[in-house]
Inverse folding.
């Protein structure tokens, strides 16, 4: 049986790459197909720590460095699975670790959950490091639309594609709860950490436009704080006079999170820095129409005009137009929501993800 060393992210903190890492660690199919060991690549323990430095993170990095060396020497894996950052500063750390793996004879495959190589490849230092980083390595991408990001550093025959998947839930277990102050309003839901690149402020601007047009809605924001604090979000809501339309519900997890999907009519995720967007899949599983962006691999998940709408990133007015179309048209919401659930069940279940990942890893470890 082939041996794989997984160097990957898993919670905490909870974000898309960490959730996929947890799915891989928990996969019975992968456990029975390979001998496996796991090393947590993350040096952050909270969303707020991501992107920051500090002595604690440096100590964690040194520990990570030692664990990788020890496992490469004693375990001698046939394949090293690595989930790196594509952009500085995280890339510098991951590039050093990748070089270490190669020097100690490891065959490596990078599974990217982010993008940005194309943004930095014109800089001399980054261009040099990318050449070293990608040399003799294989790459797993979430969508064919993401190949342009790494084009020039890796040949197409060394690139594999594996769409993310999420576990199937008994969604009928959750029911739409009655809210006295909103039962006649269309429920919009944003669910992600409060990060600017997820489009939080863009959504608030779109809600202000909808308010001016007297649209009948309320919008719930669910997620932990990130580079936007709860106070900052509250101030923006007050500034736009949205106190009766936008509500922050804090972080929700497990059944509480799923209940927020069940209570919603429309899911909105106007991100402008994304590769895939697991939350879109979660919303589709609950038969919600999705309004998201032409960003990363999202167009492979949300079909424009069929399972929801896609808009250009950072376009609040365009976002408001699409939201209004769904707010004013219940049959359209139901049709798109049902189409989205059907698409999820056909293409984006966790079972489909695990089978695809097993096939790729078997080929690479052979």
């Amino acid at each position: 049986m082939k041996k794989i060393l997984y160097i990957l992210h898993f919670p905490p903190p909870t974000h898309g790459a960490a959730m996929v890492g947890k799915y891989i660690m928990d996969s019975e199919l992968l456990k029975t197909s390979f001998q496996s060991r796991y090393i947590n690549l993350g040096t952050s323990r909270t969303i707020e720590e991501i992107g920051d430095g500090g002595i604690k993170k440096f100590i964690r990095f040194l520990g990570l460095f030692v664990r990788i060396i020890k496992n490469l020497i004693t375990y001698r894996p046939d394949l090293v699975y690595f989930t790196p950052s594509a952009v500085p500063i995280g890339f510098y750390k991951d590039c050093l670790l990748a070089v270490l793996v190669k020097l100690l004879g490891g065959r490596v495959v990078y599974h990217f959950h982010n993008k940005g190589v194309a943004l930095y490849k014109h800089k001399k230092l980054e261009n040099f490091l990318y050449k070293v980083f990608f040399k003799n390595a294989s790459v797993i991408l979430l969508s064919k639309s993401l190949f342009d990001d790494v084009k020039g550093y890796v040949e197409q025959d060394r690139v594999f594609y594996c769409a993310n998947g999420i576990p199937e839930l008994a969604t009928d277990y959750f029911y739409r709860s009655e809210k006295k102050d909103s039962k006649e309003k269309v429920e919009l839901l944003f669910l992600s950490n409060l990060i600017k690149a997820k489009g939080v402020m863009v959504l608030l601007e779109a809600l202000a436009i909808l308010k001016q047009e007297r649209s009948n809605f309320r919008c719930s924001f669910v997620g932990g704080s990130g580079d936007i604090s709860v106070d900052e979000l509250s101030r923006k809501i007050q500034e736009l006079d949205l106190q009766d339309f936008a509500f922050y519900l804090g972080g929700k997890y497990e059944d509480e999170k799923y209940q927020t999907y069940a209570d919603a009519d429309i899911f909105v995720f106007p991100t402008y820095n994304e590769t895939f967007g697991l939350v879109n899949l979660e919303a589709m599983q609950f038969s919600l129409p999705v309004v998201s962006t032409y960003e990363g691999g999202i167009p492979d998940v949300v079909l424009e005009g069929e399972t929801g709408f896609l808009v250009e990133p950072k376009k609040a007015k365009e976002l408001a137009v699409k939201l209004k179309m769904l707010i004013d048209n219940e049959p359209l919401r139901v049709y798109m929501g049902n189409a989205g659930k059907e698409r999820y069940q056909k293409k984006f279940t966790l079972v489909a993800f695990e089978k695809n990942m097993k096939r790729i890893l078997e080929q690479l470890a052979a």
